[in-house]
Amino acid sequence: YTEAWDADKKSIHVMPDTPDILLAKANAANVSKKLYVQAWEEAKKKGYDMRADAIPIKTAKASRDIASDYKYKETHEKEKGHYIGCPSAKEDPKLAWAARAMALQNDRLYKKAYNDSKTQIHMPVDAMSVQAAKECQTLVSDVDYRQYLHQWTCLPDQNDVIHARQAYDLQSDNVYKSDLEWLRGIGWLTEGSVDVVKAKRAQELLNDRLYRTRPEQLKFTSIADSPDVVLAKTNAMQLSDV
């Protein structure tokens, strides 16, 4: 049945100039990495000729000399120790400018005039600010604020004294807990307390052995003539190969 079809499949020939074939070849040429770098590879095989006086070489050398720390400090190193024309270091304009800049940046010299003028302030005794400060000091002073009263002497049988003693006794912690003094030193067992009983009851509720009953512990006897048993026996006889 398929012999003729298999023979036809082998005899089919596609023309090489069809649009689909040409498009596939063009896509393969565009995607091919070998063709993409072919011109570069051929240029590398030809080699290159770079002269020493070429513009890129000169530019690279100039950039290297500018960026070089040695070339950057070469003039400064040559000028060290060759300051000529000043009889002393104070008359040198560069050293004088450096000393002036250091004096401006010095915090001690910057505040010298202020520190000298702080101790030369004279204020009259009856100035308004001084009087206000004294009044404020009197108001916030703890010595003047607290004035202890004299000791009062009361008779022990006065009604207010008796009432105060009763109020003190009621509020006193020693009197409040005096009825519990007889409990000190008495031993007590935790067995039977509320917390112990509650913990035991919670343990019984969480105990898996008490919560679940084993099937083998249940006393159960199946009824031989129940409808379910009779139906199961009938089905077994019908399905039995014997």
UniProtKB/TrEMBL annotation:
The keyword Repeat applies. The keyword Lipid biosynthesis does not apply. One of its GO terms (molecular function) is actin filament binding. GO terms for cellular component: Z disc. Keywords: Actin-binding, Repeat. It comes from the Eukaryota. This is NEBU protein. It comes from Oriolus oriolus (Eurasian golden oriole).
